Amino acid sequence: xxxxxxxxxxxxxxxxxxxxxxxxxxxxxxxxxxxxxxxxxxxxxxxxxxxxxxxxxxxxxxxxxxxxxxxxxxxxxxxxxxxxxxxxxxxxxxxxxxxxxxx
Length: 103
What we know:
Layout: E1 4-7, H1 9-25, H2 29-42, H3 44-47, E2 52-54, E3 57-61, E4 69-76, E5 79-87, H4 92-102
Helix pairs in contact: 1-2
């Protein structure tokens, strides 16, 4: 049996931000990005715990049509708690600070 997945509110906001960004690039693309990333998060039902781990935080690098994102989560009592969906094209220091604030 796989893990349950809980997408925390700030991670959902990350998805919405990604959708808005892509919608600005090409109207209608935001919906596709949101659906793609959400499906990646839900795939953690089968793959949670298999990703690279550092200090109890797992990093799942998204592959596919929108490969610029990483998902950061923790496993607690069989639940994948998704805390952040980060655009890796951003400034690394910004991303590091964001992760520190979420974990």
